[in-house]
C-alpha cells in the first residue's frame, strides 16, 4: 500500500511517462529505417529499446502505485525483472564501440535496485523509506531513458564508429 501522500507524485510520473512514450514513438517514426530496418545499426535499436524500457518501467510502476491497496512491491519486482532481461538482450548485439557503457551500467543498476526495493516492499508494503526509494528510482529511470532518447534524436548511432586510437 502506497501512502496517500505519494498520489500526486505517482499521478504526475504516470502522465509524464505516457507523454514521453508517445514522443519516443514520434522520434522513432522520424527515422524508422535507422531503428527498425534490417540494415539498421544495432546501436539505434538498443537506444530506442532502452529508452522505451525505462519509460514503460516508470509508467507501470507509477500507474500501479495509484491503485488503492495495491502492493507496489509486486509491480516493482516484475518490472525490474522484465527491464533487466530486456536491457541485457538489447545490448548483447551492440558492438563495443557503440555501447554507451555508463548509461548501460546506470540502467542495470536502477533495475537491480528496483528489484531489491520491490522484494522488500513485498514483505512490508507500507515501508515509507522503500516507497521513497522507488520514487527516486522512477526519476533515475526517466533520466537514463531521456538520455538515450536524446542520443537517438541526435543520430549518434548513425555515425560510423572510429577505430580505436583515432581522434578528431
Mean pLDDT: 86
Please count the helical segments.
Answer: 5
Distance between the termini: 54 Å
Coarse morphology:
elongated
Report the count of strand segments: 0
Sheet with the most strands, sense and barrel status: none
Radius of gyration: 17 Å
Give the low-confidence spans.
Answer: none
What does this structure look like?
With 168 residues, this protein is mainly alpha-helical. The protein has one domain (4-158). The protein has five helices and no strands. The chain has helices spanning 7-30, 42-65, 72-92, 101-123, 128-154. Helix 2 (42-65) packs antiparallel against helix 5 (128-154). The protein is elongated and about 50 Å long.
Give a short synopsis of this structure.
With 168 residues, the chain is an all-alpha fold. It has helices at 7-30, 42-65, 72-92, 101-123, 128-154.
Question: What's the structural blueprint in terms of helices and strands?
Answer:
Elements: H1 7-30, H2 42-65, H3 72-92, H4 101-123, H5 128-154
Helix pairs in contact: 1-2, 1-5, 2-3, 2-5, 3-4, 4-5
Provide tags for this entry.
168 residues, elongated, mainly alpha
